[in-house]
Structure formats: structure tokens, C-alpha cells
Amino acid sequence: MNAKSWFSLYRLLIRTSIRSRMQYKFNFVLASVLAALIQISEFLMVAIVLYKFGAIQGWSLYEIGYLFAVITLSKTLYRTFADEVHHLEKYLVGGELDQLLTRPLPVLLTLMPQSFRIMLGEVLQGGFLLCWSLGAMMSRGQVNWVSVPLTLLAICTGAVIMFSIGLATATIGFWTTRITELQNITEDAARTAAQYPLSLYPKWLSSLLLIVIPVGLVNYVPALYILRGELGPWVPGVVAVAAGLCLYGSLRFWQFGITKYQSTGS
């Protein structure tokens, strides 16, 4: 099958998953509202502190809102199209991966749309924060309209980076089976840390979040250029290349890891 055929098949699998989820519309709406409230309350706690003290190491409330929004939307884009990568453990423990291996399709292509998620709550929350923070900074003359396409590019490259981190973490499950605790570090804790400027952290931790678990490339590094004009106009291109390298490395690691998979026999 060529690339066009794979893409058509993937769209078909997504449509099937959406129809399955929309059979329970009330659950979908309730989950979306709760997700938005949780995300907003998390940012509001930071906003209250910033409102009282004005800024954190020179980063304003609007700039930190921007960091929150970009990483939230990047994570949402990743988890919308590949949520089951994050939940690979249940396939390894329950033996469901065996069923995917018997299908005449690449395992990753079959796995990704298994539970396609329309994360409306996260989209609304992230979109609101992004419009609010960018709008405020535009009115102050800190940024101009060029920041909009650059931000959209940052969200897309950020989604690729977060998917790569998630895929690499999931791949380790082919050896360990259990990966939830590791995901709490590489995906959840790292993403939470990246919601704030990396300059707040010790050198070793900021280096870890830029190189080993590169969530800093999702929002912090692009924000330095988009919001502050620091580093240089090469930043978006370098981040895009880094995202491509992360994706390539994670896919190769996945291909190697799946050869080590041992069936549960169930």
C-alpha cells in the first residue's frame, strides 16, 4: 500500500472510532466540560500568584499563559490522534496487542485510532488562553500578527515532539510491560514542569527538559523568540528539525522494541 492508501485507511479508522464515541453524547459533553474546568483551575492558581506579585523572574502573566496554552494544545493534538500510544500498557498486560499483530497492517497504524478522542475541553481551554495571552501582548505592542503563524507552527512541532516522547516511553513497555510510573515522569511531570519558564529551574533540570525529555522545545524555546525576540529567527526551523529527529528516533526505537515483544499467551 502507498502513503495515500495508508492515509485513507487511517481516516476510515478515525471515523469509525468517532461514531462509536458519539453514541454516548452526554458522557462526551460532561467529560469535555470537566476537562476544561480542571485545566482552567490549574492555571488560575498560578494566575492568582502572578496577579499579586506581577511576574516570575521577568515572565509576565500573559507570557506564562502563553506557555500553558501552547503545551496544552500540543498535548491535545498528540492525544487526539494517538491517545492509545499513551495507553499501550493495557494492550501489553491484557494481551490485546496480539490481536493487532494478526492484522495485515502496521501495528502502530492500527493502534493509534483505536480510541480516537475529541478533546473539546482541552481545545477550548487552550484556545481561550492562547487568544487571551496573545491578544493582551499584541495590545501592548510586545508581539505582532506574525506571532500567530509562528505559534501554530510551534503547536504542530510540539505535538510531534510530545508524540515522540510518548511513543519512546511506550516502547520501553516491550521490556518492562508496566510503564505507567515512567509515563508519570516523561509525560505528565515533564509537561507540568514545562508549563512554566525553564529558567526557574536548576541548570541540571532545565537541561534535562531540553535534551533528554525535550518538552522545553515544545513551548519555552519557541516562546523566547516569538514573545521576546531572543535567540534568533532560526528558532522555528531548528525546532522543526529537532521534532523530525525526535519522530524518526522514536519510530526506529518502536520498530526495534516490537521485535522484543513476548505474547502473554492469553
Folded structure, characterized:
This protein is mostly helical. The protein has 13 helices and 2 strands. The chain has helices spanning 3-21, 25-53, 61-86, 88-94, 96-101, 107-111, 120-139, 147-171, 173-176, 180-193, 203-212, 220-226, 235-258; strands at 55-56, 59-60. Strand 1 (55-56) and strand 2 (59-60) form a beta hairpin. Helix 2 (25-53) runs parallel beside helix 7, helix 3 (61-86) runs antiparallel to helix 7 and helix 3 (61-86) packs parallel to helix 8 (147-171). The longest helix is centred in the N-terminal third of the chain and has 29 residues, at 25-53.
SSE inventory with pairings:
Elements: H1 3-21, H2 25-53, E1 55-56, E2 59-60, H3 61-86, H4 88-94, H5 96-101, H6 107-111, H7 120-139, H8 147-171, H9 173-176, H10 180-193, H11 203-212, H12 220-226, H13 235-258
Antiparallel strand pairs: 1-2
Helix pairs in contact: 2-7, 3-7, 3-8, 8-10, 8-13
Transmembrane segments: 28-53, 59-78, 150-175, 208-227, 233-251
Protein name: ABC transporter permease
InterPro entries: ABC-2_transporter-like (IPR010390)
Q: State the domain count.
A: 1
Number of strands: 2
Order of helices and strands: HHEEHHHHHHHHHHH
Task: Write down the Rg.
Answer: 19 Å
Oligomer: single chain
Keywords: Membrane, Transmembrane, Transmembrane helix
Pfam families: ABC2_membrane_6
Protein name: ABC transporter permease
InterPro entries: ABC-2_transporter-like
